[in-house]
Amino acid sequence: MATTLCLFILLFVQLAFAQRQDDDLMSFVTLPEIRALKFEITHHDRDRASPGYWFVAPYGMIDPEAPTRQYLQYQVGPYIYDQDGVLIWAGSPMFGNRNTFDFKAVNNLDGRQYLSLIAQRTFNDDIPGGGIILNQHYEVESQIFKLENTWEFNVHEFKVLDGGQSALACVYQSKVLDLADVGRPGDQRLFLTGGFAELDLATGAPLFQWDSADHLGIHETDRFHTWDEPMGEWGYDSVHMNAVDKNAYGDYIISMRFTDTIYMISGVDGRVMWRLGGRESNFVQDFVFSKQHDVKFVKSNGTHHVISFLNNAADEITTDETVSSAMLVLLDTTAYPMTATLIARLPRPDGQLSRLRGNVQILPNDNVFVGWSEQGYQSEFSPEGHVLMTARFSSDRFSTYRAYKYEFKGRPRTPPDLVASVYGTNDEDLTTIFHVSWNGATDVARWYFYGQGYDGGAPVLVGNVTKTDFETMYVGHGFLDWVSVAAIDHDGNVMGTSAVHRTKTPDDWKAAGYAGSFNGPSPINPSTTYSVGKDQDSHSQSGMASGDTQEVLAALSQAYEVVRGLGSLLILILFLSSIIGIALGAYWVLRRRRQVQSYRHVPSEESFPMEEARLQTNSED
Ligand SMILES: *[C@@H]1O[C@H](CO)[C@@H](O)[C@H](O)[C@H]1NC(C)=O
Ligand SMILES: *[C@@H]1O[C@H](CO)[C@@H](O)[C@H](O)[C@H]1NC(C)=O
């Protein structure tokens, strides 16, 4: 009796818990395997926001997750959303739930639209990590993998350069270095050195390669102490290279988190042309920064540069300022000494620190889009620094390394997904419910819904609805057996059509409440019921007009929500009464056994606070 009660309670607690855990994820009838993250969004000045979509790559753990720990439905990977948080593309299935990084649109290749991203290796290394370029049909155009003697395709950066001949990537290598530079000649240790490569996109071969071990001193870092333990089997992660860009003059700008320094590297001979920040800055500067990410050229004419970067100002160990900020800085390398002048400092709107990761993007209208990384927090600023928008994932279980905003035209090759089912209690009130979505398609304005009397019959337009969400529902009158949909753009053109689907019928019509013939109703022939131009507005012609049906359905759905609410209350009541039951039961059991087991605290990895757990598991930020 007590056991049954316990099981009963467990079941309900689990159900209630599952429900709560679910609220921050989207779910779709057409793509049940996709559970995309929801956003919480605040628009402060919608009119001044730049046009475009958000590009994010949520992950739960930054390292590849063991398959046994991975949540089976699709969540992590590349995603596109519009500015209302409406899902546009879920790329997770394409990458099998692998982590992806630096996901963005690429418009500098040949006038056509592309996407680029880093797909992380799998846990078992059966699929290597790499930099991948997709076309606007979400097909792989090209991909390159890690260089020889490197550990993996580094997750920090994959920047396709103008024309698409080459791309920049960060490169980490394990090398034994002599500690002479820090006063211990002859003492040799293994280091995880950081650098970058410009890679030929066609062959993957390095066109230019640079490594910190050849150009920087070990003393530049604040992260190497001889008494420290190395970072795993790869050695001391002493510089932590995390960003690279190239200007039209062929020189590279790079960021190293553990030296608090931005370096300019000559594209001719790899020498360090100058250092900004850190212990050996070559600039007279009117600002400070540290633990920075994502340095990029905004403008550069060879001697004068405007650069952008995220001044995290803190990391897992140190806190240098109270708030992280996006920075725009003007560098004059003709002055003596060289000068670095702050143009803009955009503090994180919630006043917090991004201790790890993040990025800054200057949009075409000079708005600034900033990814603050943790929990997908992101914001858009006007050029004057006004906060126009802030958003974050509803779920605190996910982050994105970087977040971007781009205009993009997605044209999937796969047809729209359609699911239709029929409901009703008698032949007069039968309705066919359509659910349609088209993963990755931008610019769909309306959906047209069709029925046909038989396979191969002429499709008859039974209705149309404005697309407002990723998935769109439409209620058609009558049992439409053969159905299809067409996506219509803003000019009324057909963008694509679904396959013709059969409508799902209940397994058991009687059990589903249908009072007519035992075998269920017969489908209608839409060409007689929905004939074109025949009294479109007359309700009597087609029974219940679809507008009314939509209202009835909305009312039903509201009623369902109320019932669900009542359900939760019921669960609570059951739960509370069960607790009392358990307490009584437990007392009874304990009394019978007269043997009390001592309480043991079993620490588990899950019990670490977020930041600590992350420190344990990753080195990739
Ligand atoms: C670069 O820009 C600066 C500031 O606008 C200007 O003074 C300088 O002459 C420019 N140099 C070249 C080589 O165009
Ligand atoms: C689309 O639906 C509306 C009613 O919702 C209707 O007035 C209009 O004629 C329909 N358009 C087409 C092309 O059928």
Automatic annotation (TrEMBL):
Composition skew (Polar residues), residue ranges: 519-531
Residues passing through the membrane, by range: 566-590
Region annotation Disordered: where it falls in the sequence: 515-546, 600-621
Record keywords, A-Z: Membrane, Signal, Transmembrane, Transmembrane helix
Signal peptide: 1-18
Name of protein: Arylsulfotransferase
Organism (species): Aspergillus ellipticus CBS 707.79
